[in-house]
Amino acid sequence: MQGTELFIVDDHPVFIRGVTEIFNPETDNIFVGGSANAVAEAREKLQVSAATIILLDLKLPGESGLDFCIEAKSRFPEKKVIVLTGETDPEILYKVWVNGADAIISKLAGKEQLVSTIHAVLEGQRILGPNLPPFFVHLQSSSGSRFLTRRENQVMTLLISGKQRREVAEMLNISIDTVDKHCSNVYRKFGVKNLSGFIREAKKQNITL
User: Which of 14, 119, 129, 159 could form a disulfide linkage to 105, CB 3.0–4.6 angstroms apart?
Assistant: First the structure.
């Protein structure tokens, strides 16, 4: 069968069947080639799977979907990982993102969103879908609690997802100068000079987003 092959890791067989049946291999150029209901099963099957994309839920029996996301990115670097989940805990979603998930989308997403996300990650993009909770930041330090305001959070979340500053300004209906101001405020709070430094500091300090 020609097209992009998916491998689904989810503990709900009905959900797997539903996702499998929404794709038309001829028009979507996408098909489901395998699935697993738990991490151990997925680990074994993926060793011989030709799938280029793993659709991964985070709420799995036994081993954590979060931990498996990190493992999958390391053990199967040729495969993209799209987290397709009903998880709403910002801390868990942030940890998945900073540890390399190629995309995170909600199970509330429709077929169009899923198909566009698949094509985008194949082109090297990273995607944060709609209907996800904001990634708020809290950092405890000897000087007290430093945190992002709601607008700073929106700006940083979009930048981390790969958006350019001009795109962020358009999406939030603010000026580029305002985007720059929010970035400067955030970097000052965390003692860094750029976005890469902010992400490194967040991971180093075990920040919850």
Answer: 129
